[in-house]
Hints:
The structure is a single chain. The chain is mainly alpha-helical. The chain folds into two domains: 56-187, no CATH class; 205-422, MetI-like fold (Orthogonal Bundle), CATH 1.10.3720. The chain contains 17 helices and three strands. Helix 9 packs across helix 16 (378-386), helix 13 (308-316) packs antiparallel against helix 14 (321-349) and helix 16 packs antiparallel against helix 17 (391-422). The chain is extended.
Amino acid sequence: MAADRRTSREIVEAGLARRRRKEKLFRATGMLATAVGVIFLGVFFATLVLQGSSAFVQTFIKLDVELSESVLAPEGELDLAYADFDGLVRSALRKEFPEVSGRNERRELYRLVSIGAGYQLRDLVRSDPALVGSTSTLWVPASSNVDMLVKGNIDPTIEESLRPVSDAQVAWVESLRKAGRLETRFNKALFTNGDSREPELAGIKGALMGSFYMLIVTVVLAFPIGVAAAIYLEEFAPRNRWSDLIEVNINNLAAVPSIVFGLLGLAVFINWMALPRSAPLVGGLVLSLLTLPVIIIASRAAIQSVPPSIREAALGLGASKMQVVFHHVLPLALPGMLTGTIIGMSRALGESAPLLMIGMVAFIVDVPGGFTDPATALPVQVYLWADSPERAFAERTSAAIIVLLGFLLIMNLAAVIIRRRMERKW
């Protein structure tokens, strides 16, 4: 008997040892998987920051521009529409490098500055016409190739035919640097300009405003409809086949690919209702359909989390069903509803596939001023810039992704803060 007991004990101890080894292996596997995920995430963010951080600064060139009356006011009257501001900028460049004489050399010299320098000079004269006839010192944006050269993204030591800047341009840039006429500053144009064919002038303001208008339309439509649908299904709808069918369809819609909603928006809102293509109004309607199932599911879960004793106590004091729902259940479930809504808005902010289907992939230069103006969205702007061949657009793509991730982080952080501050523990 003693031998049998020892054998049983040994069997049990051997089994425990195997289970402990498996448990340690499982923990090690989980830690390894977590570490690999964190490493890849760190590499992703590090690459994004390294590529996109340089887009937040821009290279500028200092020029002494002579605002000649013979150019700006040839007949004694200032005419901004026909004044040759680009010619004034080029004249200032020739004064900096008087040794440049050939036509091809001058063309290379003119490519040091952006075409936006002429517009900047025009805005300066428009704001203060008294400057005509004087000499003004301006910091004008450099061209994208010069900007890439100054930031170290173009190697000047490689063969001239393999880089977008010539040896002469490299020498001129170095001369400007030594003379103190070249420096990098914060790139305000990235946040104040719309899209542009020129990388140094391209900005995300148009995309930001388009996303802003779309989110307004989305939250105004999706939140009240989603909350109302959740309240009805959870508190008032009878339990039958129809309500079960609606619940199944809502859960299925939450998993439908977003491009399907884009096709629905194209067919209904544009082809049938004849709403303007590439407008934030249509984009908001499409995103409302996309986020509505998420809000309904989150709102129903929030309503279900309210203890039944709250309802029973209110009914026991003589409250009606409507009073119980709107005076007691809804205020207690509101934090969860708001959390679900913010998460749904975060998903809508990062969507691009449904917006491509309704024409928001168009090249839009002007910043939208309303819900029906042509616009694009921040994810679509990232898509457009990523498809551009210029090296300068690559860094702006990463910068736009950083801004987009920043907004998503803020929205998700707001959801966590709202839930923690407003939730009640029972």
